[in-house]
Design goal:
Elements: H1 10-28, H2 40-62, H3 65-90, H4 99-120, H5 126-147, H6 150-180, H7 194-206
Helix pairs in contact: 1-2, 1-3, 1-6, 2-3, 4-5, 5-6
Length: about 210
């Protein structure tokens, strides 16, 4: 029985993450007026949420533990965000005076998750490493913006734009490189390569 090969779901997941993060970050940074932020909700639900979540499911099929965990988790994050904003606007949920501290806690929790996912990227390509580096710092800054001072949140918005741009580049590179069947856009070698690990082991043994 011949097994049907599925396409690489990573570019879709990265694209959904990048575009939604890019748009929301313009509002977080204060570049766009807050009154227009509602446009993010359907985008977060379908592209950043559903499409990215499905990419995560397909990554399970490919046996990619990192990709499955990342895309499924961040797809769920965007669906949570969309449902939360929709529920608040309709009065289904009321956080009252605790809205900022509640969102700060959620964002801090996502910063923790993203941080340990970033550690795993030391064995992946440099582009993915940069995505997760800028992302966990973005979450941390947004959390501080709700818990400490709004200025942190604005900084998080600007860094979110940087993070989204790197994710877009990575998505584009994976699509273009696949279609051309060669490296057109480089993704960079892993921070921890086999040669670096070997050198480190030799240094430790000699010491």
């Amino acid at each position: 029985m011949t097994e049907t090969k599925i396409a690489d779901p990573a570019p879709l997941g990265l694209g959904g993450f990048a575009l939604t993060t890019f748009v929301l970050s313009f509002y977080n940074a204060g570049i766009m007026p807050a009154a227009g932020a509602a446009v993010v909700v359907p985008l977060a639900l379908f592209y950043g949420g559903l499409a990215q979540f499905m990419a995560g499911m397909w990554e399970f099929k490919t046996g990619n533990t990192f990709g499955a965990t990342a895309f499924t988790s961040f797809g769920a994050w965007w669906m949570f965000y969309a449902l939360l904003q929709y529920s608040l606007s309709l009065g289904w949920l009321e956080l009252g005076d605790y809205e900022l501290i509640s969102m700060g806690l959620v964002l801090a929790a996502w910063a923790i998750f993203t941080f340990y996912m970033w550690i795993a990227t030391f064995k992946l390509n440099r582009a993915v490493w940069l995505i997760f580096l800028t992302l966990w710092i973005t979450f941390a800054l947004l959390a501080l913006g709700d818990l400490v001072a709004p200025g942190f949140g604005i900084a998080g918005g600007y860094l979110g734009i940087v993070c989204a741009s790197i994710a877009w580049y990575t998505s584009a590179a994976e699509v273009i490189n696949s279609v051309f069947a060669r490296e057109v856009l480089p993704l960079g070698e892993a921070v921890l390569t086999a040669d670096k690990e070997k050198t480190r082991e030799e240094f430790v043994s000699e010491g």
